[in-house]
Amino acid sequence: MKIMSIVGARPNFMKVASIADAARGRDGVDHSIIHTGQHYDERMSGSFFTDLDLPKPDINLGIGSGSHAQQTGRVMMAIEPVLEEQKPDAMIVVGDVNSTLACAITATKMDIPVAHVEAGLRSGDRTMPEEINRLAVDAICEILHTTDTMADACLAREGVDPARVTCVGNTMIDTLLRHKQRAEKQGFPATLGLEGKPYAVLTLHRPASVDNKDRLSAMLTAIRQATEGLHLVFPIHPRTRRNMERFGLMDMLAGMTVTEPLGYLDFLGLNAGADLVVTDSGGLQEETTILGVNCVTLRENTERPITIDQGTNRMGGVTPDTIVPAIKEARATPPSGRVPEMWDGKAGGRILDDLARRLGSDGPKRG
Q: 342: closest CA among 162, 153, 150?
């Protein structure tokens, strides 16, 4: 099987790392990684290849930043000649970023089977660009690999043919389980002077959180109020920093430990040692569930409801009157929950097994 995996933005690397690990040394699998360059900053992507022991991308398309339409169009134009030359038997796309959508569309139109890893995740909020990407990618992909039974149920409600769906588990959790001990041994919290001290980790990066001055200011005020007594560590996203500087809000960071975006291992070690994580991220909801750390998600909805139903996550909303009580409740409640079924570190292997079954030993037959 000649399989091509697409990475574009920071969360994709953790997901594809598991597949790359499973492909190493597996007879009959020729696995390559194409980096679209949607995240091109060394701090946002480059260090991840080292931290995750990922092979360097076979091809880097170097797309860079731009509007959603610009990024999507550039990726489609850049990936087409690569597919024409490489002729993979299948493409794997992960997550919900613009690169995922662009490559899925292009490969599908070229009659190349596409497998979507993390299929069936829905927030129900069509104002989120990621939600549009999820809906479109799941509609066109021939193969849908889900992380949990709630995603399976979502696809069933949408009328998806169950023959297209296989629950494989969570590749991002594969990567976490593989690297957790190494991350903890690095002792990153101690380098920040946090060893033995109670602290909370904060991440904010979504446009809905950080692009409006009044909302961002209100959220930060509420977070500081509700986390009093915990030291706040804020690895700040470039978009968030730019907006805070533009809005004149940098003084709100006084007393926090503010860092640049962290590499995978440092960030994993930081979260593993935290008393609380406050975030608007998707993936952190899943990681904290495995780490046994309480998480408050600063959004009005989540595409990962399994982390609430079975994990350590709770919704905090986006206004002070919901953020403050959610954080206080999380601080007063010991972490509880259980690990979702099949989040066992073996999802990458299941994906390759499923592709082998679906494609057959001689690859897909195309007319």
A: 150
**Bigger pLDDT: 49 or 269?**
269
Q: What is the pLDDT of residue 56?
A: 87
3-class secondary structure, 145: strand
- Give catalytic residue positions: 205
**Measured between alpha carbons, how far is residue 276 from residues 132, 225, 289 in Å?**
30, 14, 12
Secondary structure of residue 312 in the 3-state scheme: coil
CB distance 37 to 363 below 8 Å: no
Euclidean distance between CA atoms 359 and 50, whole angstroms: 32
Q: Contact, 252 vs 217, CB < 8 A? A: yes
Contact between residue 143 and residue 320 where contact means Cβ atoms under 8 Å apart: no
Q: Are strands 2-7 and 90-94 parallel, antiparallel or unpaired?
A: parallel
Question: What distance in Å separates the CA atoms of residue 122 and residue 138, rounded to the nearest whole number?
Answer: 11
Residues near 53 by Cβ (< 8 Å), separated by ≥ 6? 17, 21
The two three-digit tokens of residue 80, written as one number: 């087409």
Q: Which pLDDT value is given to residue 41?
A: 59
For the segment 261-271, what is each residue's pLDDT rounded down to a tens digit? 999 999 999 99
- DSSP H helical segments within the chain, as ranges? 10-23, 47-51, 68-86, 98-109, 129-140, 149-157, 171-186, 188-191, 207-210, 213-226, 238-247, 264-272, 283-291, 306-309, 320-332, 347-359
pLDDT band at residue 360 using 50, 70 and 90 as cut-offs:
confident
Q: Comparing C-alpha atoms, which of 15, 208, 69 is closest to residue 126?
A: 208
Q: Which of 136, 129, 134, 84 is nearest to 105 (CA)?
A: 136
pLDDT at 316 over 60: yes
